[in-house]
Amino acid sequence: MAVAPYDFIVVGGGTAGCVLANRLSADGRNQVLMLEAGPRDRSPWIHLPIGYGKTMFHKSLNWGFYTEPEPTMKDRRIYWPRGRTLGGSSSINGLIFVRGQREDYDHWAALGNAGWAWKDVLPYFIRSEHNTKGAGPFHGADGPLWCSDIEHRHELIEAIIAGANELGVPRTSDFNTGDQAGVGYYQLFTRNGRRCSTAVAYLRPVRGRKNLRVETDAQAAGLILEGRRVVGVRYRRNGRMLEARAGTEVILAAGALQSPQLLLLSGIGPGEELSRHGIAVAHPLPGVGANLQDHLQIRLMYRVAKPITTNDDLRTLAGKARIGLQWLLTRSGPLAVGINQGGLFTRVMPGPGTPDVQFHFATLSADMAGGAPHPWSGCTFSVCQLRPESRGTVTLRSTDPFAAPVMRANYLATETDRRCTVEGMKFARRLAATSPLRTLLTEEVKPGPGTEGDDALLDFARASGATIFHPSGTCRMGSDPLAVTDARLRVHGLGGLRVVDCSIMPTLVSGNTSAPVVMIAEKAADMILADARAGSAIAVDPVATQSSPRPQTAREGSPA
Q1: Residues with a known catalytic role
Q2: Are strands 497-499 and 240-252 parallel, antiparallel or unpaired?
Q3: To which H or E segment does residue 419 belong?
Q4: Please, are residues 265 and 396 in contact by the beta-carbon 8 Å criterion?
Q5: What's the rounded Cα separation, in Å, for the pair 40 and 82?
Q6: H or E segment and range at residue 518
Q7: CA distance linking residue 218 with residue 550, whole number of Å
Q8: CB atoms closer than 10 angstroms to residue 29
Q9: Burial degree of 162 (CB within 10 A; 0-12, 13-18, 19+)
Q10: 193: alpha, beta or left? (left if phi > 0; alpha if psi -120 to 50)
C-alpha cells in the first residue's frame, strides 16, 4: 500500500531525526514524514533523569542489541542498548553534554571533509543550545536544547576534583570550549530537573505543524530505488507493509547500527556481503558497515566511608521517599541529575598531545551499568580511551529486515588500545590514592587489591569491559573508495539519499556522542535545504574520482 508523496522522509525518530524533522519542516513548504520504529516517549522513566536505570533493559524503549562473541573480550557478547522511542538514545542516555575536542573536527576536515573543522561546526553547536551558562563565544542561550549546570556540589565529587588537582589535572567549569583537559562537573541535557531529549527540545514544540507527519511503531524494511535514485521507503506499521515516496530525499537517521543495515538490505553495500545473503547488488559501496568504532569503558568500584552515595539514597523506602519528595517539590536532588555527575579528561600515554582518556564519576555502584545498586555506600570510576584504533563491522544476520544486525566491535585489537586502557586504570588507582580520597574510599571492590600488574589489569578489562554506548563510523564520510557519504552526507553515487547520524563520523569524537549528533543534524538540515534549492542531491562516485584512498586513521600526534 502506498502513502501520499512527501518532499523528505526521515527514517529514524531518534537524536538526529527529531532535529531534522523540526528544521526541514520549519518554512511550512516542505512536506516531511518521520518514521520511528518505537513508541512515543510517554514513559515517565524517560523524563526523570535518573530513570535511565529503568530504560536500560526496557523491552519496548530499547533495542537491547548484543554483539557477537568478542574474541578479544573472552568471547563475551557485549550488551549494546540503543534508544527505541522518539528521541532515540537521547531519551535513554546518561544526559551528558560533551562535544569532543577541536582537534577531532579539524582532523575530519584534514581527511578531506570540507566544512567540518571546529570553526565550521561550532556555530551549529551554539545554535542548538539553550545553555544555563548564558550566551558567549562557545555557547548559545536561544536554542531548543537545554544544557544545565549541576547546581548542588557533592562531597564525593569535590573530593575527586581535589584529588585530581593533586595529580596536576586542573579544575574546569566547561568541558566544551574545544579544549577538554580538566576535572569538574558535567553539564546535563536537563531542563528544570527533567530530561531534555531531542524529542522534547525539537519535536514536541512543532508536532502541530500541518506539513510534518510523525509515525511511531513504524519500522523501515528497505529503500525503494529507481535506477540510481532512492525514491521512497518500505516500512511496517501495525502489522501492515506500507510504502512512502519522497520527491526530494530520503534521509537515514537510524543510527550507526541500523542505517548501514538498511543500506545492505536495499542492495547498497559490499558485493560479497550482499551476495552471501542472496541480495542483488543495486549499488556497490564496499565501506557500508565497516569502520565501526566504540568507546570501551572499564569500571573501577569503591566502597565509600560515608553514607553520601546514591546507593544510600536508594537503599531504603525512607531514602527513596526523601529524594522523590525533593524532586517533586524542587526539581532537584539525585533524581534530577542522574548518576554520572563528575568528569575528567587527561592524557595517560607518553608524549605530547590532547587528553586520551575520559572518566565518568558515578555516585553509585552496581555490577553493570543500569543494574541494581550495591547494598553498601559505593561509587564508580569509569574510564574509557577516547580515540580507539580498533575497528569493527556491522553486517546482516539475514534478509529479515526486522532481525538485529550482526555487530562485531573488535575491542582492544591494537597494542595502543590495550596500553591506553591499562594506563587509564592505573591513573584511576593513583587518583583513588590521593589524600582527599584516601580515607573516603575504604576499599577497591573491583578490580580489587589482588589485581596487580599490567597483564592482570588488561585481563580484568577483557573480562569486564563494556560499551559506554557510542557506536559510530559505519557510513563514514570521505572521498576515498571506502567512504559511504560525501562531506554533504549524500550517499556516494546515488541520488535522493543521505545519512545523518553517528555513522557518518570518519573517526570517533573524544567524548559522548549525543551533542555531536545534534550538531551533525543541524548542519545537515542546512545542507539538505540548500541542495534542494540548488537541485544537487547526488554525490559523486569516489571510486571514479580518486585513485589513491586516504586512510582514515587516528589524529596525527594522538595515537590513542
Answers
A1: 470
A2: parallel
A3: helix 415-432
A4: yes
A5: 15
A6: helix 514-534
A7: 38
A8: 8
A9: middle
A10: left
β-pairing verdict for 378-385 and 441-446: unpaired
On the CB side of 187, CA atoms within 13 Å amount to 26
Mean pLDDT of the 263-274 span: 97
* Phi, psi (degrees; rounded to nearest 5) at 420: -65, -40
Rounded to an integer, what is the distance from CA 218 to the centroid of its chain?
A: 22
SS3 content of the chain, % helix, strand, coil (to 5): 30, 25, 45
pLDDT digits (tens, 9 = 90+) for 284-294: 999 999 999 99
pLDDT tens string 59-89: 999 999 999 999 999 999 999 999 999 999 9
pLDDT, tens digit, for every residue of 344-388? 999 999 999 999 999 999 999 998 877 889 999 999 999 999 999
When computed from its CA atoms, the radius of gyration of the chain, rounded to whole angstroms, is 23
Q: Give me 501's grid cell.
A: 547520524
* Cell triple for 432: 583513588
Strand intervals (E) in 133-239:
145-147, 182-185, 187-188, 190-191, 194-195, 212-215, 218-226, 229-237
